[in-house]
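Exercise 7b. Backbone tokens:
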């Protein structure tokens, strides 16, 4: 099954290039150039992973990560930045980011991280489903 990925970055050329490279690797890729477009995409689609730029003009990546985790806690987010700092990396990981990479990211490494994100999300969703079934069985008295 193809990994479904949302790329969020304000650099259009970067988005197009990375999107094409990921599609060549069999991934189902969508893009968003603004935080607002990303929120709309998240509210109307399911993704296995999000690759998120740390520096965007309308909302920085850390604040966007908070928004994503609040509404979609199971979402696996990989932050990308051209201006990595140790503090930003630590903050992102504490907020639930799956990983933090510097631009230009090695495409093979990023692809592997996205595949791991898909597997991790599937485990989380399966556990939630099993918990829901357990709760139903406990409360319905069947």
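Sequence design result:
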């Amino acid at each position: 099954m193809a990994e479904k990925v949302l790329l969020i970055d304000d650099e259009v050329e970067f988005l197009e290039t990375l999107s094409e490279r990921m599609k060549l690797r069999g991934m189902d890729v969508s893009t968003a150039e603004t935080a607002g477009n990303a929120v709309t995409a998240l509210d109307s689609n399911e993704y296995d992973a999000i690759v998120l730029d740390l520096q965007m003009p309308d909302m920085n990546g850390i604040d966007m990560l908070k928004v994503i985790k609040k509404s979609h806690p199971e979402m696996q987010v990989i932050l990308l930045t051209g201006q990595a700092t140790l503090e930003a990396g630590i903050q992102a990981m504490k907020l639930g980011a799956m990983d933090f990479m510097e631009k230009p990211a090695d495409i093979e490494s990023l692809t592997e991280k996205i595949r791991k994100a898909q597997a991790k999300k599937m485990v989380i969703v399966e556990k939630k489903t099993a918990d829901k079934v357990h709760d139903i069985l406990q409360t319905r008295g069947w």
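Instructor comment: The first helix runs from residue 12 to 24. The first strand starts at residue 4 and ends at 8.
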